[in-house]
């Protein structure tokens, strides 16, 4: 029996096959799927903001930020038995939900999240296999730990598999 | 010294509820004028919740929702969102511009801009009443519209006001126009600093 594990906003979870991880209604936030194909262990992180550095250390929820959440999730996956050097990534989200005026901070948060996630993955040498990012619509992400497939569901659009 | 939303006490919450009452009351009369019918307003709810609860607050994270966002800034900083489901959005437009053919899920440009304008009027009425009450100078942005999952729309103010701490605060009211069975919600998010200033202006010792 496969179990559906729900990942909240500024939260992450990890598990193994045949379970499925899901996170609902990503707007400018990003869902990061990390997978060890051999062990069939995967993790899904739902980050809200690009960087923790602008906040003081003892005040932050590390699962909220791209830079801290990805590193912590990998640590936990390693303890769970994943081979960190074999991890690959797929990401979705980072939309701009409202077409706001140029130069407004809310208008750029999606883009800044995408950039930050990519640079963290790159610095950890985790290959990014697929992405469904940007544009202006919300996404729900299902991550199947049997196959490693990331399924992206949006309203009034076809389901996409990566 | 208030730093996080979860430090708001019962007295603060009472004051915020009253602000919501006045703001949304003003917005409701504007809506009543637009629709030319009576609009009832719920009791204001001051919600201090974790992010997941906020995402799910308005009928489920994945529910298709029409949202109009108005930003306010100046001596007070925050956002007002006017939210309604597709069905109600279509009904309002049928009342205002007549019954026309639409694609299944999409509203025509004309109808979209009409809904955007309603959101704008409601947001302005809300903010004007706070401004009158407190004497604060508050500017509001043009309105922005999106039709998408409720959770994805809600994530915009959550990201904006949830950067510190693990809770957000919003004041929520629902409007109902019985005659046409219309329901909608108005919610107000504000920076913690703004809440402090408003409460101080109203004579509270923060």
From TrEMBL, chain A:
The name this protein goes by in its record: Probable chemoreceptor glutamine deamidase CheD
Q: What UniProt keywords are attached to this protein's entry?
A: Chemotaxis, Hydrolase
Catalytic activity annotated for this protein? L-glutaminyl-[protein] + H2O = L-glutamyl-[protein] + NH4(+)
Gene Ontology molecular functions: protein-glutamine glutaminase activity
Q: What does this protein do?
A: Probably deamidates glutamine residues to glutamate on methyl-accepting chemotaxis receptors (MCPs), playing an important role in chemotaxis.
**CDD domains hit by this protein:** CheD (cd16352)
**What's the EC number here?**
3.5.1.44
According to its UniProt entry, the protein's GO biological process terms are: chemotaxis
Species annotation = Sinanaerobacter chloroacetimidivorans
TrEMBL record, chain B:
Keyword annotations from UniProtKB, A to Z: Chemotaxis, Hydrolase
- Single GO BP term: chemotaxis
| A GO term, aspect molecular function | hydrolase activity
Q: Which InterPro entries match?
A: CheC, CheC-like_sf, CheZ_family_phosphatases
Q: Does the keyword Hydrolase apply?
A: yes
Instruction: Cite the Gene3D superfamilies for this sequence.
Output: CheC-like
**Sequence ranges assigned to domain CheC-like protein in this UniProt record:** 11-46, 112-143
Name this protein carries in UniProt: Chemotaxis protein CheC
């Amino acid at each position: 029996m496969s179990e559906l594990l729900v990942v909240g906003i500024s939260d992450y979870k990890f598990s193994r096959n045949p379970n499925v991880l899901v996170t609902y209604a990503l707007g400018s936030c990003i869902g990061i799927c990390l997978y060890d194909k051999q062990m069939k262990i995967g993790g899904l992180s739902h980050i809200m903001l690009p960087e923790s550095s602008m906040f003081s250390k003892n005040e932050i929820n590390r699962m909220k930020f791209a830079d801290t959440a990805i590193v912590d999730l990998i640590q936990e996956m390693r303890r769970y038995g994943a081979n960190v050097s074999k991890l690959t990534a797929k990401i979705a989200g980072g939309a701009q939900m409202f077409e706001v005026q140029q130069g407004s901070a809310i208008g750029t948060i999606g883009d800044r999240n995408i950039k930050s996630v990519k640079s963290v993955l790159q610095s950890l040498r985790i290959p990014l296999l697929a992405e469904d990012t940007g544009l202006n619509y919300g996404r729900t992400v299902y991550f199947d730990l049997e196959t490693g497939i990331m399924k992206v569901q949006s309203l009034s659009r076809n389901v996409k598999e990566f | 010294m208030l730093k996080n939303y979860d430090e708001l006490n019962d007295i603060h919450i009472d004051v915020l509820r009253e602000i919501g009452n006045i703001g949304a009351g003003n917005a409701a009369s504007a809506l009543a004028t637009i629709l030319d019918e009576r609009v009832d307003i719920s009791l204001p709810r001051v919600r201090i919740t974790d992010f997941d609860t906020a995402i799910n607050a308005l009928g489920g994270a994945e529910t298709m929702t029409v949202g109009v966002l108005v930003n306010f800034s100046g001596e007070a900083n925050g956002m007002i969102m006017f939210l309604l489901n597709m069905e109600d959005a279509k009904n309002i437009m049928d009342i205002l511009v007549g019954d026309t053919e639409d694609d299944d899920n999409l509203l025509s440009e004309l109808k979209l801009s009409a809904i955007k304008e309603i959101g704008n009027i409601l947001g302005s009425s809300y903010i004007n009443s706070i401004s009158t009450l407190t004497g604060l100078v508050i500017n509001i942005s043009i309105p922005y519209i999106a039709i998408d999952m409720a959770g994805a729309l809600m994530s915009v103010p959550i990201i904006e006001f949830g950067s510190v701490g693990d809770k957000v605060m919003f004041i929520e009211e629902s409007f109902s126009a019985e005659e046409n069975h219309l329901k909608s919600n108005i919610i107000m998010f504000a920076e913690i600093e703004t809440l402090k200033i408003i409460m101080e202006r109203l004579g509270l010792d923060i």
